[in-house]
Amino acid sequence: xxxxxxxxxxxxxxxxxxxxxxxxxxxxxxxxxxxxxxxxxxxxxxxxxxxxxxxxxxxxxxxxxxxxxxxxxxxxxxxxxxxxxxxxxxxxxxxxxxxxxxxxxxxxxxxxxxxxxxxxxxxxxxxxxxxxxxxxxxxxxxxxxxxxxxxxxxxxxxxxxxxxxxxxxx
Length: 170
Fold this sequence. Notes:
This protein has 170 residues and is α+β, with helices and mostly antiparallel strands. The protein has five helices and five strands, in the order βααβββαβαα. It has a single domain, classed as Gcn5-related N-acetyltransferase (GNAT) (Aminopeptidase, 3-Layer(aba) Sandwich), CATH 3.40.630. Helices cover 33% and strands 21% of the residues. It has a five-stranded mixed β-sheet with strand order 1-2-3-4-5, sandwiched between helices. The model has no long low-confidence stretch (mean pLDDT 92).
C-alpha cells in the first residue's frame, strides 16, 4: 500500500464547501445533525469576514480529511489569551494515523507563536475513545467545571429582561 501524503494548512475562503461538509460529518458522528443550523453564507461570514475563528485543514493529495476549528478566548486567572478548540475532526477512513495528534502539535505551535499558555476544549462524555486520546497526549479532564450555555429563547429572554447598565466610552 502506497503511503499517504498529508499536508496541513490554514483554511481559505475557497475551502468553505469542504469545511461545511466536515462540520456536518462531525455533527453526524456526534449524533447532533439536528442541531446544525448554519448556512454556507453565515459560516463564510463568521470565518472569513468577521474572522471569529480559524481552521486548520488536513489534506491528502485528493481531499480534505480533517480539521481543527479554534479561536482566542481569555483567562482572567492567567491574565492572557488562550486558544479554545471548538472542533477537532478526522474522517473515519483516516483515523489512527496520527492526524489528530498532528493537529494538536500545530495548535501548540500556534499557541507558542502567539504567547498563549493554554489550550481549552470540551469532549462529549460518551466519547471514550477521544477522552482516552486526550489523556494520552497530556490533557486533563476538568471534573470540577460544568459547561453551561445560554441560547435560543433563553438568550433572547435574558436580553429583554431590562436595560443594561449603559456603556461608558473611555
